[in-house]
Amino acid sequence: MPVSRESVVLKLFQAATVLTLGNGESTFFWTDVWLDGRCIEDIAPSIFATVSARKKKTVVAQALAGDAWWWLTAKQQLPKLLRRGFDSLFFLVGWLIWKERNARTFNGVGRPAADLAALIQDEASSWCQAGFTHFRLLLSVLGA
Hints:
By secondary structure, this protein is mostly helical. The chain has helices at residues 5-16, 40-43, 45-49, 60-63, 70-76, 80-107, 113-129, 133-142.
């Protein structure tokens, strides 16, 4: 697929600027660079592909406000057959991010985001090998 001139300019701009998240009311959850110098669109393109165009305009403050987690809405947009796998993915990622946070807070050590993403992929593979069939189905649909 050819890359548009606008997307190249946007990527160049993102690489050359630093974003301060602040209250999250002017930072797009999916497309702005706010997670360790990356955007969710680049970190999880398969998940990003499932998000509606309207939801892609959600800002961080909306996505993480109160109990209105984006994954509850996203899950409802999936076929019922994939929802249990989606829940497993959500909790796997949350658990590993929590463990990473604890390692940084209590042990003073942390890993780069790319290493954490690789750990998540390895753990997901282990879950599939252990027989989590709903999780395996979701990952196969996502192409992971």
